[in-house]
């Protein structure tokens, strides 16, 4: 009973976050895309129509809910000082791409709901997706740099652990174990971030340069769900 109560409490905390709601609605969006594809190929016209309506509604609601999200890029740059000039440059480029993505996504949303000219939708989609893809590329590079640094530090700590075991220093051994655990936890979170960014990059490429692979409903559906569930994992309360 206590486990189920704890899960409910965590779900409440998760859904209280803007990112939590976004990942839930993103799951709806891409599940409905796969349902639409399957129903359409199986000649279930009514199910396909309903699934398409659900997908469209979920996609538009996510865009509305992300209003003002482009400001998080400024906040990230202000709050997270980069350890090296290279990392600082990568962080600026990554967050700049993300800011372009979220900023022009507002105009894409307005054009799709008819507030702005519908002819603007394609141009806004291209600019937004281009900024998004640039941001994802640099975020992926940053994550791999930090993963590599973590692996080097972990190897150093494990070597020290062997020396500590020889000297039977329990306090230092405990500190080493905790640091190794932290590094491994950080690596898991960064790998899930890479998975999400690669999946979203596929979706962005489908907007920038439409092609049979990236624009296939199954590719988009699976990519969307990978991104949503990786984000779900990263934002789930510990």
Number of helices: 8
By DSSP, the count of extended strands is 0
Choose one word for the global shape.
globular
Which stretches are poorly predicted, pLDDT < 50 over at least 5 residues? Answer: none
Helical content (DSSP H or I, runs of 4+): over 70%
Number of domains: 1
Compressed to H and E, one letter per element, the order equals HHHHHHHH
Rg, rounded, reads 21 Å
What structural class do helix, strand and pairing data support? mainly alpha
The largest sheet, given as strand count, sense and whether it forms a barrel, is: none
Please, could you describe this protein's structure?
Helices cover 85% and strands 0% of the residues. It is mainly alpha-helical and 238 residues long. The chain has one domain. The longest helix has 48 residues, at 120-167. The radius of gyration is 21 Å and the shape is globular. The mean pLDDT is 89. One of its GO terms (biological process) is peroxisome fission. It is found in: Peroxisome membrane. Belongs to the peroxin-11 family.
Write the layout of secondary structure elements.
Elements: H1 2-16, H2 18-41, H3 45-65, H4 71-79, H5 85-112, H6 120-167, H7 170-208, H8 217-235
